[in-house]
Write a structure and sequence with these properties.
- There is one protein chain.
- The longest helix is centred in the middle third of the chain and has 31 residues.
- The protein has one domain.
- Helix 1 packs antiparallel against helix 6.
- By secondary structure, the chain is mainly alpha-helical.
- The chain contains 10 helices and no strands.
Amino acid sequence: MSPLAAWTTFVVAFASLSYAVRFTEGKPSKDVLYEWSTVANSLIQYAIIALIVYGIAGLGNRRQLLALRRPTSWWVAVRVGAGVGIGIAVLTAALGPVLNPGREQGVTPDVWIPSHAAQYVANGIVICFVAPFVEELAFRGLGYSLLVRYGRWTAIVLVGIAFGAAHGLVEAFPFLAVFGAGLAYLRSRVDSVYPGMIVHGIFNAVALAVAVSGKPVQENILRACVGVWSLLHL
């Protein structure tokens, strides 16, 4: 099996499983980030994904396919990364109150619970470091490298769609696809997955803090951004 066929099979299988779980089990508990079991389950899930991606990349030039190299320009990476952030903020401000992606995902806590701070921080480490690392390798690394032969913009769009579908959500799909495509565009500009990992991680970290800040939402925008963050991990 070719690397592209193997990656496509993996994405289709993962997306199918994600949608099946969503439609049969519904939303997770809103306090899921206050549980140690979430940390353990997430680490196991990301380890499995990383092993699959590593194995598929081994069918070709692994380092080349995963784009594990220095960006061609950190300045370009900063400018494009900022543009991706602004773009997703505008999208969430416009469509977030209508589609309400956070409500569909249902994992964002409503309040800060100090007695569960350790669990929240541990989940935050997974979400801000492990998730961006694995997801960028899977989609903007391996996926983009395998699809770019069909054209740069074809790869960007297909990676965005694959990233959105892998999360198994309906109302949130436009946000996820746009974010995924934006990060794929960043990857295409600097020929590296490292800037995408940083942008992805920063976005997650900001939204984690906002989620439990307790500040009133003037803030349909902030609520929408928090909702979008809650979708950005597999």
